[in-house]
Structures are given as structure tokens and as C-alpha cells.
Specification:
By secondary structure, the chain is mostly helical. The protein contains seven helices and no strands.
Length: about 140
Amino acid sequence: MANSSTITAQTFYKGNRTAQALYRKNKALIVALLLIVFLFGLGGVTVPNFLSFPQVLLTIKLASFIALFGLCQMVVIAAGGDGLDLSVGYAATLTAVLTTRFMDGKNETLIIAVAIAIGLGSPSGCSTVFLPPTSSCLPSW
């Protein structure tokens, strides 16, 4: 039998109302942070140099593009109406793949690559001006 003065984590949690309130209020955030820590730990164990400083900076840089797309999508949804433009990710991926393939590491072709990117993204963007975003973005891809 355990000593009565021993406090287990479970009894501490049950007795601490502030921790319970914080957990209930931020349950999704806590789960997301735990998953991030788990995935970074798994990557660190399975892939060499996964947790190196340059790799972490690259991950943050690439995540910033996804965050930017998410913010743009939030503006579209918050504006109301029919707003849900699913073509943003497809247009960005197609543009990134084709322009990097065209440039092939040469900075001299940057202007032409930007023109290609504008030419590829414009039809999708312009179609949402004249049609509702949901009906114009799905058939465009």
C-alpha cells in the first residue's frame, strides 16, 4: 500500500483545478503540440541529420508558405458568399514544379520563370472572379 503522503500525478491533476481548466480549454492545441514533438522525435530517430539546424530552418521556411496559403484561404472564407477556393494549392504546386524545372538552377531565366508562373496561375485566379470559387476551381484542375 502506498504511503498517504505520496502524491501521484493523477491525484495532483485531479486536485489542481487550474491545470484541469487549462487542459479543457486548450485540448486541441496540446494534442497538436504533442504530435509535433512526436513526429520530430520520430524523424530524428529514423532520418540522419533530421534535427540539424539547417533542416529545421528549411522546415520552418516551407511551413511558412503553407501558412500563407492558409491565411489567404481564411480571408476567402471570412469574406462570405461561396468562398472556398480549392485551386490555390494546385496552382501553387503546378507553378512551383514547372518553373523550377524550367529554371534548372540558372538565375538568368528568372524573369521568364516568373512570366510562366503568372501565366499558369492567372487563369485559375481570373476564373474565380467571374464564377463562384467552388464551381470554378474544381473543374480547372
